[in-house]
UniProtKB/TrEMBL annotation:
Transmembrane segments: none
Record-level GO cellular component terms: cytoplasm
Species of the source: Sander lucioperca
Protein name, per record: Fibronectin type-III domain-containing protein
Gene: LOC116063131
PROSITE patterns from the UniProt entry: FN3 (PS50853)
SUPFAM superfamilies, A to Z: Fibronectin type III
SMART domains with a match to the protein in the record: FN3
Domain of life: Eukaryota
UniProt xrefs under InterPro entries: FN3_dom, FN3_sf, Ig-like_fold, PHYHIP/PHYHIPL, PHYIP/PHIPL_C
Pfam families assigned to the protein according to its UniProt record, in alphabetical order: fn3, PHYHIP_C
Protein family (similarity comment): Belongs to the PHYHIP family.
Amino acid sequence: VDDLPVPQQIRISNITCDSFKISWDIPDSRGRERITHYFIDLNKKENEKENKFKHKEIPTKLVAKAVPLPMTVRGHWFLSPRTEYTVSVQTAAKQPDGDYAVSPWSEIIEFCTADYSAVHLNQLLQKAEAIAGRMLPFTVFYRNQQKEYFQQARFLHCGRLHCPLWLIYVVTPVCRYNFLIEQLTLLPFAFVSAQIQADVLFNQNTNVYFGDFYCMYTSYHYVILVLAPAGSDGDAFCSGRLPALDRANNFFLRCSEESDGSLSFRHAQDVILEVIYTEPVDLSLGTVEKISGQQLLSQSTVNAKKDPSCKICNISVGR
């Protein structure tokens, strides 16, 4: 560590979903005129209740020339929407041999990135629609998982959207959902399948909203949808924030009324649908059974890391 001055009074401003401006004060010292670069240490803030299956976060160290402040930090490579980060700064002086003399790190401050704007969400929607694929029929929503997973899912409150939603439901191309299972602690077996007829959650009184589109370093792409009973608090919340979809004619999840008055249901083949339902589900309307045979467990993407390099599901914000 050299005698370079330590940045003080770190300030964050102009925060978007994938950028922010940062500035600080440099105290007068004999090393001030030697500063050639700034080192910025940016890390996702750890959550005590992080999903145990999440990808390992890699700290981001940014090197920038000593430009006038405030400095703009921008990049979906290392910034995600509605995510808490910590940041600290060093001053540095590049030496003739190419190495850097550095100051001690500044204080660590915290901030949270902003959510997608309506414009950004519509851009993501258009990208998701382009790869959704053909529609296939289904009649039952279900979720296969460990009993422990369901017990944990009971307490989730939709961290992705920051809205008053009760539960998270997940549907894959074969339509698997999460359910609130109050009585699960009474079940002696480790793996269960929760099932419910599609029309219980999805009918002519349900509104559909688009939430997000992403992947996680795999060839699979995920689309987040929100199902909200018309007129509910969740519906009121989503209607002013998320793009609304036509219940009977969208690219992802459809509910249509047939000529005989019955309902038919279809889902997109080429994306995995992660569906959030805004009300608690009465499991007595469905079934909970022990998994037998070679049934695969459903996936959990809570707190998982999005792939920022994918050209299919990323948009350029503020460019």
